[in-house]
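Regression check, copper (II) ion case 307:
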Amino acid sequence: MTRGDVFELIFQVFLGLGTLVGIVVVLYIMYNAYIYRDDEAVDDPKADSRPEVGELPVGGTGGKKLFMSFILSAIIVISLIVWTYGMLLYVEDGPGGIGQGGDIQVQNEEEVDQYHDLTVRASAFSFQYEHNYQGEGGGTQGNELVIPADVPIATNVTGTDVWHTFGISEFRVKADAIPGEYENTWFEADETGVYDTGVQCYELCGSGHSGMNHDLIVVNEELFAAAMDAEAPGDLYSAVESGELSVDATAEEFESYMAAQQSDDEESDGGNNSEGDSGDNNDEGADSPDEGTSNNNEQTNESGGEN
Ligand SMILES: [Cu+2]
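Current build output:
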């Protein structure tokens, strides 16, 4: 159950019970208003039980109804409190306790490793994030956060300069990023997709605060595992962000994307110079090939000099 599911359920239960209690109370009021109505034409069927001004209405049965309504309300309210509190504890602890009860502590990175298969350490600093995937295949990412769907993710949040707050409103998670403190929490994404400005800073932290929001990419578990195996969550992020891979792509599609990327890199490394040269020569060399060549050399020299 995701954090969103919990809050949705709490909302539904309160709405349902509130509606039910409201209907019962309103109907009972209307019923009483009808049978105790002031009408000469009808006999007063409740003459004996009609309450007097200043008296506690006993309903003719020694206060039984009053007592019952009090007990019933108490049962409803107390069970709501107990149940809701339990649900909120689940929100803090997470499935299997990976949320660590929202503990705030000072700890080192080795301890973070032990939490769960996937722990993301989010470090906020003015005015960026650094996302560190703990565990096998992990590594450090910049602002780019890509996660698998339907996997509870342990999150450990800290800050390195001023106070920030790491938050993903879509998945109802928020944790303060305070220098020297590590706040544990968790969240789970139930749907794949690209969430525009999904990761935001929720603490006014300085002039760059409004720019501290970044897309969150949620992919299927298989695709994410493939990216972790290749130690390339960053490549997966940019592949999805640029539209070259869908969030529901398969591991094979990711592998062929990576292979294509690599051969592209090799091609551009090896072929850039010759391509560039021939292009320039064709354009400029139509009138006078010598001029074109000398221009090229000048440009090369200039840029070399600047560097
Ligand atoms: Cu901020």
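Comparison notes: The longest strand covers residues 193-201. Residues 164, 201, 203-205, 209, 212 surround copper (II) ion (CB under 6 Å). No diff flagged against the previous build.
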